[in-house]
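Z., the sequence and structure:
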Amino acid sequence: MPTKEEVAKTIDHAVLKPMQTDADIVKNATMCIARGVGSLCVRPSDVKLAADTLKGSQCKPSCVIGFPHGANRPETKAFEAKLAIEDGAAELDMVMNIGKFLSGDFDWVKRDIEGVVKGAKSKGVLVKVILETCLLTHEQVAKACKIAEAAGADFVKTSTGFNGDGANPEVIGIMVKTVGTTMGVKASGGVRSWETAVGYLKQGCKRLGVASTEAVLDGAKSDGAY
């Protein structure tokens, strides 16, 4: 059984709801520092504030790209990623273009990811690709994982937490089996209890997307939506 400290290091603490304020960013960043959380994941407009607040701590600032629908043009995502990195983001969580994937335009999907990866790699910034697995069949989840791998991303991630169901053990199993030896797998959406978090880590996840971090680390369940 992992310790709370070990689990905390795997958490990307999400502060992504549209109504969250600058004060919320600072408050959550301070919590992340105090609890030894691995990363604070924020909206693009919040990266500089998050990075400034986290400066000197072990918690890394991360930013969502093309969030939450993934339908931005590749050039837009690449530029958004560039600005986030300039503002201090050490990691990027980009949403795959789900509509293009479901249309069978896999070249578009790969180029879309490559555009973000290209700007991130030279800066030592990690790229995680959000697949929105609740909209995909199991076969499509595996296919999306392989596209993200071919495009040079570092992680595949289940969900935004804003569009239907999030992670589940079955889909995590598929992702780990498909790319678990070459990429990291991140479970996100619905990780609201200590038992769930530990379960995904035991399955092979390297990261957890969590909004109710304190509740998870304290072993209590939370009713939060993310």
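The chain has a mean pLDDT of 96. The radius of gyration is 16 Å.

Let me know what you think.
H.
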